[in-house]
């Protein structure tokens, strides 16, 4: 996989990834970082799980591809000193939605299925990047696949399906 047109810093520029609190949201609710390592990148703040466990970021490259990224911090590391597998899977699920955002447009979706394969470990301070593609966009189901990399090596491959939904269901 060739590197995309924009390079990212190889070192952590700030010990904290900044999620803007009062930034005006984009049409899909995403907000843009205004400072720090991910300045100009977008994230969704409506998902408390992702905000707490990330933050995870995405942007559109010059070639139209969606690129996702996050910096591994101590909170992402398991007892063996590598990134926790659940953290990689949560980020890959985020990537599914970032990659499909142009197809979903203003709509919403839910993960219907998700499969992943662990390939290698990643470590604190490393940048984890995600990229992928929409394999097929049907009327109600989207099919996607992608890869997470760190320090130029693949760490996880994933595939999933997203079901388009019209309205959020409320808990009874």
What's the short version?
With 172 residues, the chain is an alpha+beta fold. The chain is built from 2 helices and 8 strands.
* Topology as a string of helices (H) and strands (E): EEHEEHEEEE
How many structural domains can be distinguished in the coordinates? 1
What is the global morphology? globular
Low-confidence runs of at least 5 consecutive residues: 1-16
Describe the overall structure.
The strands form 2 sheets. Strands 3-4-6-7-8-5 form a 6-stranded antiparallel β-sheet, covered by helices on one side. Strands 1-2 form a two-stranded antiparallel sheet. The protein has a single domain, classed as Thiol Ester Dehydrase, Chain A (Roll). The chain is of the alpha+beta class and 172 residues long. The termini are far apart. It has 2 helices and 8 strands, in the order E-E-H-E-E-H-E-E-E-E. The N terminus is likely disordered.
Task: Describe the structure using short key phrases.
172 residues; alpha+beta; Thiol Ester Dehydrase, Chain A; two-stranded antiparallel ribbon; 2 helices; disordered N terminus
């Amino acid at each position: 996989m060739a590197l995309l047109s924009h390079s990212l810093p190889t070192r952590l520029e700030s010990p904290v990834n900044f999620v803007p609190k009062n930034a005006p949201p984009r049409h899909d609710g995403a907000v843009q970082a205004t400072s720090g390592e991910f300045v100009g990148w977008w994230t969704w703040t409506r998902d408390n799980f992702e905000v707490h466990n990330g933050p995870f970021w995405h942007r559109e490259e010059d070639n139209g591809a969606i690129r996702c990224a996050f910096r591994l911090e101590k909170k992402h590391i398991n007892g063996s000193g590598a990134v926790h597998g659940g953290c990689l899977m949560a980020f890959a699920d985020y990537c599914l939605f970032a990659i499909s955002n142009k197809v979903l447009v203003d709509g919403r979706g839910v993960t219907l299925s998700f499969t992943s394969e662990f390939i290698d470990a990643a470590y604190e301070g490393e940048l984890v990047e995600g990229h992928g593609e929409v394999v097929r966009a049907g009327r109600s189901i989207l099919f996607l696949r992608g890869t997470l990399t760190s320090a130029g090596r693949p760490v996880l491959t994933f595939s999933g399906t997203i079901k388009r939904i019209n309205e959020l269901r409320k808990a009874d």
